[in-house]
């Protein structure tokens, strides 16, 4: 029986003498610390990939990269003269400093001014200008660019590192909590449900 006030020792089977008890190594505090720090590191990446994923999932319903522009401008008309002077007058009136990529007549009263991301349909008789084109969605376009890995080779390395982080977070999360609330209890049930959802979807939808 333990002696009050005595040090934590155990008898040595070989000599019968008392030997110090080995300290038990607890891995969960280290695991939780790594899980926490890598989780903080992955926050920015997770926001980018999650928001981009939501946007790309609904690509049939909207353009996740660009706003569609359809604006009518009314200038004082008629706009009489050669194509280039009329074009300069229209661009100046609309505050456009971009040089046209193309300039041509669609009809006697219709001048087309083609810019980088938009086209100006000019009715030279009435002075009405219909502006059609696209305006980039700044954040989502950049997020989609990264998510779809359209960048340089360096981003492939970064994206692979993020994937490894996610694998670590998922794996370490299984072992962070001991007992019935952890992997040997309800944690196993919840993990099984999470794994069953994509599996059942593939089976029931008969894809791919």
Shape: elongated
Oligomer: single chain
In terms of DSSP E residues, the strand content is: 15-25%
Lateral strand order in the biggest sheet:
3-7-6-5-4
Largest sheet: 5 strands, antiparallel
Q: How helix-rich are the residues, as a percent range?
A: 40-55%
* Overall pLDDT confidence: 87
What structural class do helix, strand and pairing data support?
A: alpha+beta
N-end to C-end Cα span? 66 Å
The radius of gyration computed from the alpha-carbon positions, rounded to a whole number of angstroms, is: 33 Å
The helix tally amounts to 5
Number of strands: 7
SSE pattern: EEHEHEEEEHHH
Count of discrete structural domains: 2
Query: Unreliable runs, pLDDT <50, ≥5 residues?
Result: none
Can you tell me about this structure?
This protein has five helices and seven strands, in the order ββαβαββββααα. With 208 residues, it is of the alpha+beta class. The chain folds into two domains: 28-62 and 138-196, no CATH class; 67-136, no CATH class. A hairpin with a 4-residue loop joins β6 and β7 (128-136). The model has no long low-confidence stretch (mean pLDDT 87).
């Amino acid at each position: 029986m333990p002696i009050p006030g005595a040090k934590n020792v155990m008898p040595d089977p070989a000599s019968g003498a008392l030997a110090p008890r080995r300290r038990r190594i607890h891995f969960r505090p280290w695991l939780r610390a790594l899980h926490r720090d890598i989780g903080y590191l992955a926050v920015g990446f997770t926001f980018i990939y999650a928001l981009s994923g939501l946007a790309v999932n609904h690509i049939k319903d909207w353009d996740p990269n660009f706003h569609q522009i359809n604006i009518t401008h009314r200038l004082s008309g008629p706009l009489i003269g050669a194509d280039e002077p009329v074009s300069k007058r229209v661009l100046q009136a609309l505050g456009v400093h971009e040089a046209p990529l193309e300039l041509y007549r669609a009809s006697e009263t219709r001048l087309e001014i083609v810019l980088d991301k938009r086209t100006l349909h000019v009715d030279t008789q009435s002075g009405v200008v219909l502006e059609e084109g696209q305006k980039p969605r700044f954040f989502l376009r950049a997020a989609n660019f990264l998510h779809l890995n359209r960048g340089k080779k360096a981003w492939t390395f970064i994206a692979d590192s993020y994937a490894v982080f996610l694998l670590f977070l998922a794996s370490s999360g299984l072992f962070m909590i001991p007992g019935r609330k952890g992997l040997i209890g309800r944690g196993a049930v919840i993990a099984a449900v999470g794994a069953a959802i994509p599996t059942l979807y593939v089976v029931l939808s008969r894809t791919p």
